[in-house]
Design a protein that fits this description.
With about 210 residues, the chain is an alpha/beta fold. The chain is built from 6 helices and 7 strands.
Length: about 210
């Protein structure tokens, strides 16, 4: 396994490039969400980072109960800024493998998370997504995927010293679907971002 990513180096807000990336990811999220017909009342994001994706989902779908979890203090402080003034939000600073919080969310999701762990930990994390979701609820997971565009963009970033995600290993949609299946999740739909660092997302339903 490569050296762990130093998330203190990550720019969570105020980056034009990051804003374009987020917009691409959010559009792909909305595409997956269009397959969900019932209201989503509660949402949990694991490895929340800035919390901007959950913020956009909560705004568009009028989600009332919001929980964000991250192990990085800088990410937690960013989430607090993004959700400032809202009183229906829990922001939890905790190891992602410590799941001592509420169960039974309508939607549990993550973006840019599981690819930073080895295969055993990836499965454990997806199991956690599933365990925290109510029966009949939904899970969305986005991961970088090794398209030609992703591979070329990453090589450029590495050569110019701008690549900080030292432990990131891209995954195919099929790999993600298989991990979800092992966690008791049923594949519903998938989507792909159009940004240079391509990501694949899968919507699952908990059986």
């Amino acid at each position: 396994m490569n050296e762990k990513t130093d998330w203190d180096k990550y720019i969570y807000l105020k980056s034009k490039t990051l804003d374009v990336f987020y917009q691409s990811v959010i559009k792909a999220y909305f595409k997956l969400m269009s397959n969900i017909k019932e209201p989503i009342k509660s949402i949990l994001e694991l490895g929340a980072g800035s919390g901007k994706i959950t913020h956009e989902l909560a705004k568009k779908y009028n989600i009332k109960e919001i929980t964000l979890v991250d192990s990085n203090k800088k990410a937690i402080e960013t989430c607090k800024k993004v959700f400032a003034g809202r009183d229906n939000v829990k922001i939890i600073h905790r190891d992602l493998f410590d799941t001592n919080y509420d169960l039974g969310y309508d939607l549990v999701h993550s973006q840019g998370l599981i690819e930073h762990f080895d295969s055993e930990k990836q499965q454990e994390l997806v199991n956690i997504h599933s365990n925290l979701t109510r029966k009949g609820g939904y899970v969305i997971i986005f991961v970088p995927t090794p398209t030609k565009m992703y591979n070329a963009s990453r090589k450029i970033a590495e050569k110019t010293g701008k690549w900080i995600f030292t432990d990131e290993v891209p995954m195919t949609k099929e790999q993600l679907i298989e991990i979800g299946r092992k966690a008791g999740l049923e594949y519903i739909a998938d989507a792909k971002t159009k940004f240079t660092f391509t990501e694949a997302g899968v919507l699952f339903k908990k059986l």
